[in-house]
């Protein structure tokens, strides 16, 4: 859901890339745009981390699998993730502002000491901790697979394939996470700690700002990774695609029935 909603911002950000000096949505739109984008991106990052933790537990402690797959537990975890994202990002409403200078209109953060602290905490909570967690789990899984290689030779082939698949998928998640969100993390750090001369800072800022759109790569990569890692996700996605067809089929049946009744 978070990835799908994040993708809705793509047309607007494409417009901003080609018309960088005129923000089109006004002050209210500016605040809503960036607050929602922060909420959704942070939520997506935490969901990736939670999903990786689930894969890690299944590989390392398979007997916990049934407990993890309970729908009630999943909904609670997702709910907590959304609450954390909201609690961090809602205060941004008071720090985002619109700057209008003749033909130039910019949507930007008004930097204060409080904003700097909040941004630094967000970078730590929503990037450094998740990235470190994913890397540690991947390393532990690889160590376990190597040390248990002899035992795995005597174990069922399917079990070994599942473990190898999980390890590869976690590696893919880590790579996607790093490539997609590192530029955005650098961008946020630069907004808090500008240490360059103005000209150098502005040139670097423009480059990193464009690279921030790599975050949209994550919205495309995540569903693919989820579908490869989770049978339930694949089935839910298939059901989602089938729903419109079922509804259209029902509507056609209802129309045919009503027409038949009217003729009779």
TrEMBL record:
Keyword vocabulary terms for this entry: G-protein coupled receptor, Membrane, Receptor, Transducer, Transmembrane, Transmembrane helix
Source species, domain of life: Eukaryota
Single GO MF annotation: G protein-coupled receptor activity
Major site of localization recorded for this protein: membrane
InterPro entries: GPCR_Rhodpsn, GPCR_Rhodpsn_7TM
Subcellular location: Membrane
GO terms under cellular component: plasma membrane
Domain G-protein coupled receptors family 1 profile residue range list: 1-226
UniProt-recorded name of the protein: G-protein coupled receptors family 1 profile domain-containing protein
Organism: Spodoptera littoralis (Egyptian cotton leafworm)
